[in-house]
Write a structure and sequence with these properties.
Blueprint lengths: L2 H4 L5 H11 L4 H10 L10 H8 L3 H13 L3 E4 L2 E4 L1 H6 L6 H19 L2 E8 L2 E8 L14 E3 L4 H7 L4 H8 L14 H13 L4 E4 L6 E10 L2 E11 L8 H15 L27 H8 L9
Antiparallel strand pairs: 1-2, 3-4, 3-8, 4-5, 6-7, 7-8
Helix pairs in contact: 3-5, 4-5, 7-11
Length: 306
């Protein structure tokens, strides 16, 4: 034993080891700490929850959470953070997508058969929509979407229908200030997008788009909502000449009934007990009068949609 060791002085080798043990964890270790804090696919944690469980400084936890959300390891909802698509995929989970598809399947099928249009089911993933299902017809091949594919949320009816039920700050964080244009009709400014989302809320959640993402294609959509916010969306797609106002009530009904299946008795705007499963129902819930439809569409004040 050396004299330095006898007197308790650390050798350079031992000094380096002690320093490493006392140093803060690496970025990878911090990310792992945060991901480990989510103890299941349905776990929802606030920033304070994450900081407390990981014992990381709040500012550090917030910075890493933002990076994990951008890379889709986590998702940021109005009610907190949850595991994102990448984390759920590695864990063999689908984030509840299977349940959403199962609940929407008969309604989506009836929508497609009833209207002859292309029916979509999608979820919001960051600033994009992620397609869970697509039921076609003669138009299917002409609609550039696919199951497992993505599209920007700000220029699709599906995306706007779901963005409309988020807090404005969340929309800002997801979409950013530099919104890409894809056609001459694409919304290109954040302020204009917020105006459109306001109109969607005034129209009972109805979202339209004509030629915003692809020329010659029109779409109407409504969000499937829980008490905590949008969980998915349903849409019908046709060519630019399709009279979407005629099928809009069917889309709203299908979205509402899917929400009632997923969240019995708690879906917003249910209007009472769940009716027969399907989009063709009797009574005012399944059809809107021409006067009601005109009032809803008059919200735009232009006789056309963004």
């Amino acid at each position: 034993m050396t004299e330095a060791m006898m007197h308790g002085a650390a050798t350079p080798e031992f000094a380096g080891t002690a320093a490493r043990r006392e140093s803060p964890p690496s970025m990878i270790e911090r990310m792992t700490l945060i991901l480990d804090a989510f103890n299941g696919p349905t776990a929802r944690l606030t920033l304070e929850d994450v900081a407390r469980r990981t014992r990381l400084p709040r500012s550090t936890a917030h910075r890493i959470l933002d990076q994990l959300v951008k890379q889709r390891w986590l998702a940021h909802h109005s009610f907190g953070y949850g595991l994102g698509q990448r984390a759920l995929g590695l864990g063999g989970q689908d984030g509840g997508h299977g349940k959403i598809r199962e609940a929407a399947a008969p309604l989506l099928h009836e929508l497609q058969v009833t209207t002859g249009l292309v029916a979509h089911l999608a979820v919001l993933d960051g600033a994009e929509v992620f397609y869970l299902d697509k039921l076609g017809g003669r138009l299917a091949a002409s609609v550039p979407s696919r199951v497992g594919g993505r599209a920007p949320a700000h220029c699709t009816a599906l995306g706007k229908a779901m963005l409309a039920w988020l807090e404005p700050e969340q929309v800002d964080a997801l979409c950013g200030e530099n919104i890409s244009r894809f056609t001459s009709r694409t919304i290109g400014e954040l302020g204009t997008l917020h105006q459109e989302l306001h109109r969607i809320r005034q129209r009972r959640g109805l979202a339209f788009e004509r030629g915003e993402s692809y020329p010659g294609i029109a779409c109407v959509a409504a969000a499937i909502r829980s008490a905590e916010g949008p969980v998915a969306g349903i849409s019908l797609v046709g060519d630019i000449r399709t009279p979407l106002e005629n099928v809009a009530p069917l889309v709203v009904t299908a979205a509402r009934e899917t929400a009632q299946i997923l969240f019995p008795g708690s879906a917003p705007g249910t209007g009472g007990p769940r009716g027969r499963r399907g989009v063709r129902r009797s009574g005012e819930e399944s059809t809107w009068s021409p006067e009601t439809m005109n009032r809803l569409l008059a919200v735009d004040g232009r006789g056309d949609w963004m």
